[in-house]
Structure formats: structure tokens, C-alpha cells
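Hello Y.,

Per our agreement to keep a running log of every chain we model this quarter, I'm adding this entry. I've kept the format consistent with earlier entries: sequence first, then predicted structure.
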Amino acid sequence: MSEDTLAPEPPSTAPAPPAAGTPAPHVRDALEAARRGTLALTDCLTDAELTAQHSRLMSPFVWDLAHIANQEEIWLVRAAGGLPPLHPELDPLYDAFRTPRADRPALPLLGPEEARRYAADVREQALAVLSRTPPTGHFLFRMVAQHEQQHGETMLATHQVRRGPAVLDAPAPHPAPAGADRLPREVLVPGGPFTMGTDPLADPWALDNERPAHTAHVAPFWLDTVPVTNADYQRFIDAGGYDDPRWWHPDGRRHLRRTGWNAPAFWRRSGTRWLRRRFGRTEPVPPDEPVVHVSWYEADAYARWAGRRLPTEAEWEKAARHDPATGRSRRHPWGDTPPGPEHANLGRHHLQPAPAGSFPQGAAPCGARQLLGDVWEWTATDFTGHPGFTATPYREYSEVFFGPAHKVLRGGSFATDPVACRGTFRNWDLPVRRQIFAGFRTCRDAGTGR
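Predicted structure for the entry above:
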């Protein structure tokens, strides 16, 4: 998903200051957790690295830091609080729609200390507004907390493209549990109707593109039990998958010729084995991890080579949420309880995917594992609104991205915070993107061969 999706301008008429209400510790906790994450990703870098552009695909870290603060000022201080702007002159500099990422280093951006001070000043006012806002007015606070976490994931992707010594560290995930290597290759997802999407009363954290809840129908299909692994993907490479035009979308084939791709991003061959660069460290590619840093075109080509296909977004959501025993759709694959470390690899606790077959307690009713966390999963679906979609609070949050240019990803990654990850959460990106933490799983129609 483009994390640059909050509005560049406040509403033309700010609402009156809200009436006194009760504090919202959960919303406040989400805002404060997001800020701790932001500072952890930026305080570990020198000023020179904060202001540098590490890839034309990514903004300088210091732009993200001030953009986060600017959007919080626009939506929480001005719109929710009805207060005057602190720094309206910054709005054009941190308007994500005005200046492409590649051009942002040329802007007269705030320096690192100025950006930190601005973020702290905005946060002080935003929390004061929250303290007097009733729970019925918390949507903007939830949206802003998720926006900052989305930028946290984007800044982690910038850490991945950054060259230089490692500055981040985290423990490795636990090994796969006993029996993970004996899981069935695929699980059957029954056909029929199910409830797709959600509504504000059912999930007050849901963003506009997750709404409204509606009935969707899918035919029965077989879905990979776990995401496609590095070992699986190496077999595609070894079979000449990158060189065979039969497997490639025409646009993907043209992009392949331009770029010379022959493996996932950050991989390189050393003799008879593959190595990868991960946050400043070079290491062997672990065979049992879900493959990551592949584009939609690569995922689609692998699926065709395997005699399968990518699931549609509706198929993915039915597999992740539908409980045949009750007929209802869950918030998460395992139920409605918040994600814990036994359910999924989320929240940057591990800076890599967990081995395939992990988290049996996080399995969906259909038996599929790791549908949330580890890697975003490309789907076959173009990004558009659910039936009855209404832009909230404005078109630029997601509606301007609707259309065939962007493909839907689902499920979150190890870099995604739980506050921005649930069974209805929708991500989107261009089909060429590989710096994001994306992988995939495949499926086939019931009754067909592989």
C-alpha cells in the first residue's frame, strides 16, 4: 500500500472543538507505540544517513519523520481539535501527492533535530485533543496511528535498501514446530457465500477500503497450506523460469528484459548457493522461509510455471476469515482475539519471516497457516472499492489508487504492526515493486490438476 495516502490539506472547514469526553487509553497506546517505532528506526542513524536518499523508490528518512508529524497536525490538531495550524508552511513540503519520492531530497526539508522537535510538539497537542474527544470521535486518531505504523514499515524497507553496516537487530524466529514438514501441500476452501469486508460498528479500526461488509461468492478451491518458500522458488529459478516467456505476463516480460532480474531482490549467487542481503548482513538464503521481495509479475510467473494461479482477493479473505462451523467471518484467522506471538509474526519482533508451517495456533479454519504476518501475499485482484464503497474521510486515502495499475496484497508481514493488520486489511502496490516485504501463495480450482 502506498503509505503516502493521508490528505495534503485539512478540511476546508474545521469542526468545532469537541465536547469533553473520556480518555481512550487503547488509542493513546497505539499512538505512543507507533512513535516509539518511528524513533527506533530513525535514532539509530546518523544525520547524514537520515537526510540521504538510499533509493529513488524511497523517501529520505527525515522526510518520513516530518511527514508523519505533518499529517498528525492536519488531522488531529486541526481537523479533530479545531486548533490553528502550527506550521502551515510545511504542508506543501510534506504533501505526498505534490512531489514524487525521487524528487524529495531537493526540497528544503526540516533537518533531523527540527523534524524530531516538530513531531514532539504536534504529539503534545494531539494528545491534549484526544483527552477531550469522546470515543465516538476516535476514527481520525485510529487512522493516524495506523498511518504512522505504515510509515514504520516503509522506513524498514528503506533500511533494507540502505547500504552500509547493520544498525538493526532482532532475534530470529523460532524453528518450525514438529510436524511442519508433514503438513499437506494444500487445503480445501469450500465454495459458497461469505461475508467479506467489515463495518465501523464491527471494527472501528477498519479503514474506508475495508468497508462495507458485503456478501461475496467463491467456487471451491485448493490453497497452499503455507506461503511459497525460498526452496520452492529456487526450483523455479533452476528450471529456467526467468528465461521462459510462457510463464510471464507481457508487461512483466518487458520489465524483465529492462531490469535483468533473475532472482528475488537482494539475492545473489555464490558458487552453487544463493546468498541474500538482509538489513546490512549477508547470509545464506534459508530454504524453509517464505520467499520475500518478489514482485507480482514474479509471483504470477511462478504460479503459472507450477500449473497453478494466484488466489483472488475474495478467495484469500474467505480462506483467512470464514468459519464454516458458525457461518461467520472472523477478524483474524484464529478468531477475534488480538494477535499474540503464538499466532503470527508481526510487529518487527523478528526482522525476517518465520519458517513455513509456523504458528499452528494462528491457523485458519481451513487449515492454512501464516495468512497473517511473515510476508504480504500478492493476489490476482486489481485494487478497487468494495460494493457500496464510500471514501472516508476523503478520496485520497485510497480511492485515487483504484484501477488496474495496482494489485492487492493481503495479510501483513513481519514488518507490519498488529494495529494495521487484520483479516480485512487491504494493501496495494504496483506489480513491479520488490522492495516491499511481499511473497505469495498459490491455488487451483477444486477438481483441477496442479
